Amino acid sequence: MDDYEIEIPQYFICPISLQIMKDPVTAITGITYDRESIEHWLFKSRNTTCPVTKQPLLRDSDLTPNHNLRRLIQAWCTQNSVDRIPTPKTPLNKFHFIKLLKDLHLHPQNQIKTLRQLELFAAENERNRKYMAEVGVGKGVLSFIITCFDKDQVPGLEEALGILNFLRIPSAETRLLITVENDKVIESLTWVLGFDEIENHVAIKSNAVIVLRKIIETVSSKVLERLKREFFKRIVGVLRQGGITQQGINAALHVLLEACPWGRNRILMVESGAVFELIELELSTPEKRTTELILGVLFHLCCCADGRAQFLSHSGGIAVVTRRILEVSPAADDRAILILSLITKYARNSVVSQEMLKVRCVEKLCKLFQYDCAPYLKEKARQILTSHYHDLKDSPCIDLSILSTCTAQL
């Protein structure tokens, strides 16, 4: 359609998308929008005002179908030889999802079919996802996964995890389920991460770790304090083996970061080989957000002696952290310098000093003083250089005047 040849009536245009409305609905403020646009505005973007009037517009506000306007648009399209706007399907309501949830539990022979329907509806739009969360679909599907774990059965897992990947699981619902089922929810998802030979294992494992992240972010500290050794072995194993999506990798790193504040968890991560695998992952030059997460976890693990020892045992540890300084983001600078600060504080020997020279760490730290970064980072850099000054000052690779200036009190 050529907009320069055919004048479109202004009231056919959605105020948000500025396109002809396919499914016009009227908000409580009296303004008509295309359903997809206003639902995205309310549910996805989480805005709370009417885009036109700026009046309050709650997410649960009724959106009334404007059938007369839709018919006028369809008639106009026909008259002007424009592709006719199809009559939209009637939106699903909560009762439809309540029925599907009952079918999931009451009719085991149709579980796969029911799960596929729920996954399709979850992928369709934010309104469906909102209703599914409200009627407890997330809890129901998690219970299904626990049953799969108990019976060691795989059919339906891919669809169930796909549904949970789309849904936002309410925190209270998650806490209640974990209280009732003890640690079965986390154990079930950990079990899924061990799949390597089944069909679509990449999608299944990726969705499992994404759902696991949602769970870990909502549970109480008591749950995080009793995470098991197998849990960390599986998460680290996912990073080691690869074979999952980038979103899955970031979710796995988020899970580790959430568990880091507890010393016991850090020890279990180190024993699972987390430090080595994180360095290996960073050496593959991941995206910015992944680097920030990797450095964040590494900082926590380097707070313990075994973590620092594992870091130094990897020939690329100091090199890859050094490389990220002033190259990624202020957040990455913060974590990288704090990691080097921990390593050099507890390992003041010539071997570390020579490694710093070899990978141009000293040069990078001196360069830091020329940039507008946080004073405490410059102080950390000064402390690192000062602690190894004796081994660095005689190196022909270093300008002693610059090194002396950087190690002076700020």
From TrEMBL:
Domain U-box: 7-83
Keywords recorded for this protein, A-Z: Transferase, Ubl conjugation pathway
Molecular function terms, GO-annotated: ubiquitin protein ligase activity
Annotated Gene3D superfamilies: Leucine-rich Repeat Variant, Zinc/RING finger domain, C3HC4 (zinc finger)
Pathway membership: Protein modification; protein ubiquitination
Enzyme class: transferase
GO biological process: protein ubiquitination
EC number(s) per entry: 2.3.2.27
Catalytic activity: S-ubiquitinyl-[E2 ubiquitin-conjugating enzyme]-L-cysteine + [acceptor protein]-L-lysine = [E2 ubiquitin-conjugating enzyme]-L-cysteine + N(6)-ubiquitinyl-[acceptor protein]-L-lysine
Protein name: U-box domain-containing protein
Provenance organism: Dipteronia dyeriana
